[in-house]
């Protein structure tokens, strides 16, 4: 049992009952949530780079790196969930 299961933070468990429990696995990740996290990450990277007065090249490189990381994570989650589903069948 995880520490978060022991603490049982109630407001979060209502929204997402699997949060930081042993049942919090990649097959429960919503594509819509992944898209929203991607947008938030890209927005944050762009704001930080622009506010720091970075060159446009650095802004574009930061955005591209963010997209690459999110695509990689999404791909890994997708293939893990497919593999789990195939094992069950």
Characterise this structure:
- The protein is mainly alpha-helical.
- It has one domain (3-88).
- The chain has 4 helices and no strands.
- It has helices spanning 3-7, 10-15, 31-51, 56-88.
- Helix 3 (31-51) runs antiparallel to helix 4.
- It starts with a helix and ends with a helix.
- 0% of the residues are buried.
Features:
mainly alpha; 89 residues
Strand content: under 5%
Total count of domains = 1
Total number of helices: 4
| Overall pLDDT score | 74
Biggest sheet character:
none
Structural class: mainly alpha
Query: Which stretches are low in confidence, meaning pLDDT under 50 for 5 or more residues running?
Result: none
* Helix-strand topology string: HHHH
- Helical proportion, percent range: over 70%
Q: How many angstroms does the end-to-end distance come to?
A: 28 Å
Rounded to the nearest angstrom, the radius of gyration is 17 Å
Structure summary, number of beta strands: 0
- Morphology call: elongated
In short:
By secondary structure, this protein is an all-alpha fold. It has helices at residues 3-7, 10-15, 31-51, 56-88.
Helix-strand blueprint:
Layout lengths: L2 H5 L2 H6 L15 H21 L4 H33 L1
Helix pairs in contact: 3-4
């Amino acid at each position: 049992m995880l520490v978060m299961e022991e603490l049982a933070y109630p407001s979060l468990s209502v929204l997402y009952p699997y949060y930081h429990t042993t049942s919090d696995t990649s097959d429960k990740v919503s594509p819509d949530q992944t898209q929203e996290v991607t947008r938030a990450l890209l927005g944050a990277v762009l704001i930080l780079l622009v506010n720091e007065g970075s060159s446009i090249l650095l802004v574009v490189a930061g955005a591209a790196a963010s997209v690459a990381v999110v695509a990689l994570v999404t791909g890994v989650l997708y293939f893990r969930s497919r593999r789990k589903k195939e094992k069950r069948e």
